[in-house]
Structure prediction request, 260 residues.
Amino acid sequence: MNNQNILIEKQDNIAVITINRPTKLNALNKATIQELHDCFKALNEDKSVKAIIITGSGEKAFVAGADISEFANFSVEEGGKLAAQGQELLFDFVQNLSTPVIAAVNGFALGGGLELAMACHFRTASTNAKMGLPEVTLGVIPGYGGTQRLAQLVGKGRAMELIMTAGMIDAETAKNYGLVNHVVAQEELLDFTKGIASKIANNSSVAIAKAIEAINANFEDGTNGYEVEIKNFGLSFGTEDFKEGTTAFLEKRKAIFPGK
Ligand code: COA
Prediction:
């Protein structure tokens, strides 16, 4: 892969993707979205990768939003297409990835940046992080899933207020709202998040993939999450990971999951 806008590092079953446009505060242009799609797809197919962390380069921003310079002259049709393509290529894609994805929010996560963090399976943040959906200051609305996922994560009233005021919340408030799970000092963020990722990596990746699918099912129109859970619970019994997990427990040893 010949990436211009992202960096990828793999170590001990954990991959770290760094969005690397620091002079533009890592704003998501079209090329970056495509590179991220290709990268997530490849990492998801690489069975040695058990968890993915995504973060931003530099000390200031995770991602300061969609690249405003790219869409400033768009028509109604182009605007609709931008949102639809972005959601399909990146935001929905990440949400439905079977490999766990954690956003390590290391600074500003605004607009598309917060939407990307919210599409990840969960979030950690540094104390300097600031989050918000300021789109209405530009005369648009969040278009990469923000109106849906923010309300799911923090509740409808808070989402309404944050979007209408275009307000920014700090990391502690985001934690109180349930938008991020943990807040740590910026210099500790990556190691702290890698620590969570390695706990995940010790568990059955097959079971985790089925759990992600079942949890996400609750938020899909026309899907009964309980039914997906029942189906995936049953399917787990046919996996090598289940045999290893239960055998290891009964033999009083640590399971070594084959990931099948
Ligand atoms: N799209 C394109 N470029 C962006 C950007 C975005 N979303 N966010 C920041 N940048 C660029 C700036 O244009 C600037 O580029 P330049 O040096 O070539 O002029 C560079 O990143 C640094 O940003 P700057 O605004 O100078 O930094 P700051 O510290 O003064 O302010 C922010 C930081 C995050 C408050 C401010 O950049 C901002 O409000 N960004 C837009 C946020 C937004 O509305 N996002 C939603 C988009 S849908």
User: Anything to note?
Assistant: The mean pLDDT is 97.
